Description:
alpha/beta, two-stranded antiparallel sheet, 21% strand, elongated
Amino acid sequence: MDRLRMATVWLGGCSGCHMSFLDLDEFLIDLAGKVDLVYSPLIDVKEYPEGVDVCLVEGAVCNRDNLEQLLEVRRRTRVLISFGDCAVTANVPAMRNQLGPDNAASVLQCAYIDNAQYEPRLPKAEGIVPELLERVRPLHEIVTVDAYLPGCPPPAERIKALLERMLAGQPLLLEGEQLKFG
């Protein structure tokens, strides 16, 4: 069997899902023998490659950079897994959605004007702050998601269970206790 080309991506979230991924401990050694990690915040690769077999995507879609990256990941990935509650439901990052239809402007006003200690102003230089989307969204509202891995973060055993199913060529479905959120 050819080695699977695997990736992980971190969008708008806390990186807790990636930390839980690292909690796989010895299973990471087994996994390294079966997959090639071709893109991840855990390795130094700048461009998302073509022909990725499976990608775990952590975080909600909060800004224009997240949106563009997710669309590229979907185009270049065979199996996309919504990794953690932020990716599955938008979770904590979506709390700003409660601020109303102009929540992006409200967040920037609060962060850069109202709470600034020195020189309150909105950042204007290109590339400093990615353009916020008007609404934070979970992955499935933007692209087709092939499997869901809930949890905040998903415990290592749940991640392992899904990865073992993937490696065995089984459907990427979790059951019972493995479906808990939070």
